[in-house]
Each structure stands twice: as C-alpha cells, then as structure tokens.
C-alpha cells in the first residue's frame, strides 16, 4: 500500500470508533429522513402515514444516496466521520470517485438487508423486536470485519475502499485556528 502525498496515517480506525461514527451518522440521517417526510407528506397530499409509502422510500433512498456519495467523493468524510476522525479513501489512500462512492453506498445496504429480510420472514410487527433484530444484524456484520486482514468491512473490500484514521495535519490545524502564518 502506498502512502498518500500528504503523509496521512492510513491505519484502520478501531471498530469501536467506526461504530460510534455509525451511530452518530444514524442521528444525522434521522434528521434528513424527518425533513424529507415533512416536505414529502404535504407535497403528495398524504393523509395517512402508510399512504404513498413506496414513493417516500424511493425518495429517501435517493436523498441518502446523494448525501453519502457527495460527502464521500468530496473529501471522503461525512460530518460524523469528521467528528470521529475517520475518512474514506481508496485502498491505495487516494480520494474516492463518485462512481466508487455510489457503489459503496449501494453495497452498504448489506448492513441492513439480511436483518430486514429476517424481520419480514418472521412477521415481526413490534418496533422493539424489529430494532433488536436489525441492531443485532448490524453488529454481526460489523464483527465480520475482524476476519478481514486489515479489519475493513466487506463492502469496502469489494469496492476497493477503506476507512482510515484521519486527523487534520498539525500545520493546517494551526492555520485554521490562528490564521495564516506571518510572511
């Protein structure tokens, strides 16, 4: 593996830190979902929460795709990833292209699809049961990263991407807090 030009650390963040970023991302995504629902409902003259559901699901899938692909291909980080010092790069440490970011977004659904299929097959209706099954599925998927030689997630290995530890280089940090150095 080649180091990037800026000498950044390409070590894999701990699973704990990646899961913390994942949970924080969930909070941010919840905000996107709520705002989209608030806009979509009146636009579609939605009178009942279950009416027009396929359209809302499709809209959310596209909106979340735009959010993640844009963030990952323009700096490699979402707000949650910035907070937890995690960055998405190619397996060689380079920035991720929009096409690769889109492939990663689509494959990221592996976190949830098996658990959602199990919920549907079991006919679970209670929110607590569904959340428990989906949460257990996501944790099981995350634990599988321990089987990868570099502790990466399956979807990253397939897409040729990886999550790395990322902290702003000290020189840039000093300039951003104190202004440009005197000339």
Account of the protein in words:
The chain is mostly helical. It has one domain. 59% of the residues lie in helices and 5% in strands. It has 8 helices and 2 strands, in the order αααβααααβα. It has helices spanning 15-43, 53-73, 79-83, 98-108, 113-122, 127-143, 154-159, 170-178; strands at residues 86-90, 161-165. A two-stranded antiparallel sheet has the order 1-2. Helix 2 (53-73) crosses helix 4 (98-108) and helix 5 packs antiparallel against helix 6 (127-143). The longest helix is centred in the first third of the chain and has 29 residues, at 15-43. It is globular and about 55 Å long. The model has no long low-confidence stretch (mean pLDDT 86).
Helical residues, percent: 55-70%
Classification by helices and strands: mainly alpha
Strand order of the largest sheet: 1-2
| End-to-end C-alpha gap | 37 Å
The unreliable regions are: none
DSSP summary, beta strand count: 2
Taking Cα atoms only, what radius of gyration do you get, to the nearest Å? 19 Å
Per DSSP, what share of the residues sits in E-state strands of 2 or more residues? 5-15%
In DSSP terms, counting alpha (H) and pi (I) runs of 4 or more, how many helices? 8
* Count of all domains: 1
In quaternary terms, these chains amount to single chain
User: What is the ordering of alpha helices and beta strands?
Assistant: HHHEHHHHEH
- Which overall shape is indicated by the principal axes computed on the Cα atoms? globular
* Overall pLDDT score: 86
Instruction: Describe the largest sheet.
Output: 2 strands, antiparallel
């Amino acid at each position: 593996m080649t180091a990037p030009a800026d000498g950044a650390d390409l070590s894999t963040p701990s699973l704990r830190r990646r899961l913390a970023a994942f949970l924080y991302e969930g909070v941010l995504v919840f905000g996107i979902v709520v705002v989209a629902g608030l806009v979509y409902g009146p636009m579609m003259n939605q009178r009942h929460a279950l009416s027009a559901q396929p359209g809302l699901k499709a809209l959310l899938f596209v909106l979340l795709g735009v959010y993640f692909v844009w963030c990952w291909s323009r700096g490699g980080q979402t707000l949650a990833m910035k907070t937890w010092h995690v960055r998405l790069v190619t397996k060689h440490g380079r920035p991720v292209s929009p096409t690769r970011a889109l492939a990663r977004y689509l494959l990221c659904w592996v976190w949830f699809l098996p658990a959602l299929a199990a919920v549907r097959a079991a006919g679970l209706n209670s929110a607590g049961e569904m959340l428990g099954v989906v949460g257990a599925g996501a944790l099981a998927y995350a634990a599988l990263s321990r089987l990868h030689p570099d502790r990466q997630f399956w979807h990253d290995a397939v897409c040729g991407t990886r999550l790395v530890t990322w902290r702003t280089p000290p020189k840039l940090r000093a300039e951003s807090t104190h202004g440009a150095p005197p000339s």
